[in-house]
Amino acid sequence: MPTTDLEQRSINALRILTIDGVQQANSGHCGLPMGMADAAYVLWTRHLKHNPKDPAWPNRDRFILSAGHGSMLLYSLLHLTGYPLSLNELKQFRQWGSQTAGHPEHNVDLGIETTTGPLGQGFGAGVGMAIAARYLAARFNREGYPLFAHWIYAIVSDGDLMEGVAQEAASLAGHLGLDSLIYLYDDNDISIEGSTNLAFTENVRTHFEAYGWHVQEVEGHNTDAVDAAIRAAKVSKGRPHLIICHTHIAYGSPSMQGSARAHGGPLGASEVRATKEALGWPSMEPFFVPNDVIAQYRLAIPQGERAEAIWQDMLTNFEQAYPEEAKELRRVMSGGLPENWEMALPRFSPTDGAIATRAASGRVLRALAPVIPELIGGSADLAPSTQTFVSGYGDFQEATPEGKNLHFGVREHGMGAILNGMALYGGLRPYGGTFLVFSDYMRPAVRLAALMQLPVTYVWTHDSVFLGEDGPTHQPIEHLMSLRVIPNLTVIRPADANETSAAWKIALEHKRGPVALILSRQKLPVLEQTGRLAREGVARGAYVLSDSPLDRIDLIIIATGSEVADALEAQQLLTERRIGARVVSMPSWRLFDEQPVFYQLNVLPDNVIKRLAVEAGSPLGWERYVGSYGSVIGIDHFGASAPYQRLKTEFGFTPERIADRAQQLMVE
């Protein structure tokens, strides 16, 4: 229990700031912050290694509020310990322009390590952070220089543990023995609909022990018990840690404690007053915190400065002992790429023969592996298909943390969340692969990566119905369109090997969010023009691949991916019919839309109104490029199981069918 009255009032300050913030906003969640105030106080004042005056220093402990609906708990902790989050920001909770959104939004300068709210995502991100820390420790730590040696803490809820993404991540964390993870589970037996007995009666302890976790159970309102459990976790090696904190939701509220009504929404003015009275709070003034409580929390500043100073001294000595390694460390942590790294990007020639863009991507990864050591990733048990395995660089496993090949298992959603955590940690360029159709399993994590503008690369292969015999369950139809509408996600569907190489260059240089590479299963010819044009053309999103051989442009064919080669053949057929066609390769809508208008008009001149878009996916959205007088050859139905050549014929994606449709368009 709290050893002093000051400690008790410091704990209650978290509850008071929460209920005042939610009451003033007239929305929010009081229950979790009030229930976990004791455990959070212990963690933040006795264990968490952090510096509010330098929130981003690399060897800080990470704290994740995976149960992001309890955001007022995090905001209160950040304000009280001295981060640049003012009391006025707490008063503006959930209001326009404030830094205290309804759910935490990633801002390292404020001490918010990751965006949370969609339950389970923070759980998975923490696993990614632990993987990143272990990999960087294996790469840079030396005897006497533990540059990466810290903990990743999280507060998780019943809702987090019910989500499949958390279970996927927990299973992998146990397999990898990620013992830097210490998660505090708010076990209050309440969900939005009522008791967790309605739907969640599993034995969490035995469940996580079966995953390979070290599990303890404590009374969550007993600060000494929580403290002892964290200390025990720190000395238990080889397993991630779950501390089950048995708590009461809305602890301290006379009428709402233990009730599902306390999960979301304000307590109400009368209950706020009653709670302050029950807790013995010295003032009814909203957002009042005694000066000695603030001073108690602000001890985090000198403690953090001392911890960071010790680490900085170690880094200085490391630089003297290992100057080349130190230079490399500074580069990767700053997010910079090695000098002249792009020289390693392979170029392809038509004489190389046809090559699937997934295979071209694999060749790019193998070429870059020795040049960009921080490029690390894997797939959801599909590496032979996605070509994401890099030979000669080992597997990332508990015994081999220096390995560059991650095996996520058949866990697409967990992979997405883990990639986010790796990117958030810094110093890595993470990528993950699966079939495009299974990007649906990753979508919540992809959306958060886009929201946080993280440098994650997705390698999504088997990009159309032309994957063939696996049939409609594995053939993406709506996926390209649905991914293109996600803000900040750059989708690139390259036409051949050279465009694939150029797409990887963009992915590694891009700084405004994740990049999705959409790659073919079937072999595609290396186009003669891309050797000269792809590097700049892909960066601009679309470019003139082949202009009309006639002295005029009657029609523009716009295509992506495997359909570009067919468009070029159709162009030849149209030339024989005396129709002048320009072929535009458009691997990325987003990149093209970002170009100056004069460039867009140069590629798609507005005086050529006959336009035909060709893409083996949903035609929705293409009207923005083909206009009122154009047309689209797409697919608005599910596919079929057959060799891809037969599917091309049946679905109208042969050069002849494209030329026929273009000719028809000319007379409409």
The count of DSSP E runs of length 2 or more, i.e. the number of strands, is 18
Largest sheet descriptor: 6 strands, parallel
Structural class call reads alpha/beta
Helix content: 40-55%
Spatial ordering of strands, largest sheet: 9-8-10-11-13-12
- Mean pLDDT over the full residue set: 97
Number of helices: 27
Query: What is the overall shape?
Result: elongated
Rg (CA only): 28 Å
Query: Could you list the spans in which at least 5 consecutive residues all have pLDDT below 50?
Result: none
Measured between the Cα atoms of the first and last residue, the distance is 81 Å
Which key features would you list for this structure?
single chain; 12% strand; 18 strands; five-stranded parallel beta sheet; alpha/beta; 668 residues
Structure description:
- With 668 residues, the protein is of the alpha/beta class.
- The strands form four sheets. Strands 9-8-10-11-13-12 form a six-stranded parallel β-sheet, sandwiched between helices. Strands 1-2-3-7-6 form a five-stranded parallel β-sheet, sandwiched between helices.
- The longest helix has 22 residues, at 300-321.
- It is elongated and about 90 Å long.
